[in-house]
Amino acid sequence: MASLPSSVTVLDRFQVSPPPGSVPNASLPLTFFDVVWLPTGPVERLFFYPFPHPTSYFVSHHLPVLKSSLSRTLRHFYPLAGRVVPPRGPSPDAKFQIRCSDGDSVPLTLAESSDDFRQLSGDQSRGFGRVYGLIPQLPPTDDGSIPLLALQITVFPDQGVSIGVAVHHVACDDSSSIHFVKSWAAACNAEVLSESPLSPLPPLCDPTVIADPDGLYYKILTEMQNLKPAGPPPAPLDLPPVGAEQGDAVIASFLIGREQIDRLKQGAMARAGTTGATHVSTFVVACAFAWACLVRAQAGFYAGKKSAHLLFSVECRGRLEPPVPAGYLGNCLRPCFVEVSMSDLIKDDDGVFAAAEAIGRAIKGLEHGILKGAEGWLQKIVSLTPERPMSIAGSPRYRVYDADFGWGRPIKVEMTSIEKTPGTVSLAESRDGGGGGGIEMGLVLPKRDMDEFARAFVMASSFLGT
Ligand SMILES: CC(C)(COP(=O)(O)OP(=O)(O)OC[C@H]1O[C@@H](n2cnc3c(N)ncnc32)[C@H](O)[C@@H]1OP(=O)(O)O)[C@@H](O)C(=O)NCCC(=O)NCCSC(=O)CC(=O)O
After folding, report:
1. Boundaries of every domain in the chain
2. Alpha-carbon distance 360 to 338, whole Å?
3. How remote is the CA of residue 451 from the centroid of ligand 1, in Å?
4. Which keywords label this protein (predicted)?
5. Could you tell me which CATH number the domain at 8-227 has?
6. Which of 10, 264, 318, 409 is in the most buried spot, having the most CB atoms within 10 Å?
7. What is the 315 CA–ligand 1 centroid distance (Å)?
8. Per-residue pLDDT tens for 390-442?
9. 417 lines ligand 1 (CB under 6 A)
10. Is the pLDDT reported for residue 233 higher than 70?
């Protein structure tokens, strides 16, 4: 594990449990949507809030409320305090499970940083090593189990606070993890204001709502074992963080404003004509824009390639038949694959629209069956790895900037786990929220590629006349 940057000092470490006796002793089997994430790692976000007070004030006035509201929130999100354990015994239908019991707890680290809060929570390129120390680390285990949640609060004295959240992807997707963060924030906010919480509804912790009539769980597990001959149980990938490995990796954000999005949508609709064969949305044009910029930023890699690939997750709760409740705690994602020819993608005046058309067609294609071809998804993802598909993490629909712990909206939200898969772009609604309607894109790249991306971004914006 990489060491913390010298600007970060750990002040204390806590274990926070749901209130005693408030959660069931339960074993929740993983579903076919979960099991595919076993060999991955945590999805991490940092929420930055201005906080112009000393650390001692934070510790005496805010930390106790953050801890008690976390405890009460874990009562509803108790699987996140549990651990994934491998199947026990010889039974062929034994499954990986999230084992939960009274007394489970999650690690919460309190740290202090002497770094410049304004700079760290800005949009401009910052060395990834500088944010690395703010990210909570899931604790190591020696029994093959997988802990699911870790939290870190870092105080920048008289400047601000960051809240780091790391949730292992095998536990849940972004829909659920943002549900957890917003529920914690609402509970904390309510305690600060001494009002009854306007909390989101509690989650549904019942994996039986994911029907599996075709036995996808075992088909996917078998596929995973075939792809990884070392055999079961699939070991978590211990990928070295780019920030720790590559001193020159930087993180930066780019904003696509509402006006720009409207122009992109108009252009995409004009290209698609009236056939209705494609789907044009903010998500589609934002991905297309990022894609066209990324292939320019990484021109060396793409030189001589015939096509470029894009991979993104589709949230399936409302698309399944019957639909799964929106508040279901777990994973409910499928991959969506898009390929576009390089000659189309790099056209200055039309590349973004060609990309948008291809993405829109792929989304439209989901109407032919949301689980169609599920047995082959993993194989396809693995086979695409050498092609370095651009992947999308996060989604503007989850409104991460609404997470208010009582200090107002975050000044910045970063999805730092994108560093683990080079070529990943994180998406969120822009900080000004739904009103402004812009999109924020986050990237982690070697500094030279980031400079090229920034150049491509400005150039592509100029073609739109913005
Ligand atoms: C497949 C999609 C990406 C396609 O998105 P689109 O926006 O193009 O299409 P759509 O049908 O969802 O939406 C069409 C229009 O309705 C609006 N709309 C629809 N549903 C909405 C909702 N629940 N909340 C707010 N707006 C919504 C959209 O903003 C859009 O309008 P307008 O055009 O105005 O915008 C999406 O449907 C989807 O599944 N999104 C969630 C993906 C997700 O969960 N990603 C995180 C994965 S986990 C992760 O990332 C962690 C990791 O792996 O690292």
Report:
1. 8-227, 249-464
2. 9
3. 29
4. Acyltransferase, Transferase
5. 3.30.559.10
6. 264
7. 7
8. 999 999 999 999 999 999 999 999 999 999 998 999 999 999 855 578 999 99
9. yes
10. no
Is the C-beta atom of 310 inside 6 A of ligand 1?
no
Average pLDDT over the chain, rounded to an integer: 92
Mutate to test the pocket of ligand 1, among 263, 281, 399 (most ligand atoms within 8 A of CB): 281
Enumerate the β-bridge partners of residue 254.
Answer: 441
Residue 274 has pLDDT above 90, yes or no: no
Give pLDDT, residue 278: 81
pLDDT higher than 90, residue 1: no
User: Sign of torsion, CA 355 361 364 369?
Assistant: negative
Ligand 1 centroid–CA 347 distance in Å is 27
What distance in angstroms lies between residue 441's CA and the mean position of ligand 1's atoms? Answer: 15
Of 338, 285, 289, nearest in space to 311 by CA: 338
Residues marked active site are found at 169, 404
Residues 6+ apart with CB under 8 A from 324: 209, 210, 316, 317, 318, 332
Q: Does the CB atom of residue 283 touch ligand 1 within 6 A?
A: yes
Lowest mean pLDDT among 43-52, 54-63, 348-357: 348-357
Q: What is the pLDDT of residue 229?
A: 54
ipTM of this predicted structure: 0.94
Greatest distance between any 2 Cα atoms in the chain? 64
Share of residues in the chain with pLDDT > 70 (%): 91
Asked if residue 431 lies in contact with residue 401, where contact means CB atoms within 8 angstroms, the answer is yes
Q: Is the CB of 313 under 6 A from ligand 1?
A: yes
* pLDDT for 319 beyond 50: yes
Please name the fold of domain 249-464. Answer: Chloramphenicol Acetyltransferase (3.30.559)
Beta bridge partners of 8: 113
Helix (H) or strand (E) holding 64: helix 63-76
Question: How many CB atoms neighbour CB 409 within 10 A?
Answer: 15
| Residue 37 Cβ contacting ligand 1 at under 6 Å | no
Contact predicate 357/273, CB 8 Å: no
Contact 151, 162 (CB under 8 A): no
Q: Are 338 and 309 in contact (CB under 8 A)?
A: yes
Atom of ligand 1 nearest to the CA of 426: 50
Distance CA 465, CA 260 (A): 9
Question: What pLDDT score does 192 carry?
Answer: 73
Residue 127 has pLDDT above 50, yes or no: yes
User: Quick check: do 8-227 and 249-464 share a fold?
Assistant: yes
In the block, residue with structure tokens 């500094």: 447
Whether the Cβ atoms of residue 26 and residue 77 lie closer than 8 Å to each other: no
